[in-house]
Amino acid sequence: MRRVQAVLCRTYALANIGRHAAEGFDLCATTHCQLFRRLPPESLSARLAQQAAADTVGLAIVFNGQPIQALFHANCGGRTSTADAVWGGRPQPYLTSVADPTCGTSPAWRSTIDRERLRQALHANENTDTGSRLDRVVVAARDPVGRATAVALSGARSRTVPGETFRAAISVSLGARALRSTWFLVRREGDEFVFEGRGSGHGAGLCQAGAIARARQGQPEEAILAYYFPGTQLLKMALAR
User: Fold this and answer.
1) Range(s) of the domain holding residue 177
2) Distance of CA 99 to CAs 55, 145, 200, 203, 206, Å?
3) Which of 48, 63, 92, 137 is the most buried (most CB within 10 A)?
4) Sign of dihedral through CA atoms 226, 231, 234, 237?
């Protein structure tokens, strides 16, 4: 699985060269591009990551000869979603929805958030701000899998926002575990909002939990990547610019 992850990260970087060109660099080290945390070079994790990168040097996932948007997330909850369902935009044939039975057995999660804490978290993001009051949170639309694609917020002012925008606003203020995915049901109980859901992360592309299970079953890297990104190939590319 470490080699799979190395190929994913390399492919994503190749596909997004120049994303921050106006700022003088290609990619940032946050979740906007790829989250990067420097490890002590002598640590086991750092050595294993370096070995995985060396073992797969030059390998990338390509579609029609070009590196793909190699999206990945922690746990799909049983099925991935298409990227256009999650964020909008043009559909990509390799970012489709695939079943992942291993993750379908993952335990559901439950999160209870105090109404005022939730209001403050949403207030910190201009896209989700409901002003001085938060009364209701309702899933207004879902994709075919069941993930929330639109969330209606009612309070001092009302607005409807994309599901991932809603999740991101909560994660920034309250942590990623406060709302693990957009595959959830929500209800208000007094001065609390209760979220019950499945999976972890945005749900598009490769599911890391499912990929780990496939690797433990002995599936090769190429087969794992082809399953989550149908129609793609694993090829060696020239990395020099």
Assistant:
1) 109-197
2) 29, 10, 15, 11, 11
3) 137
4) negative
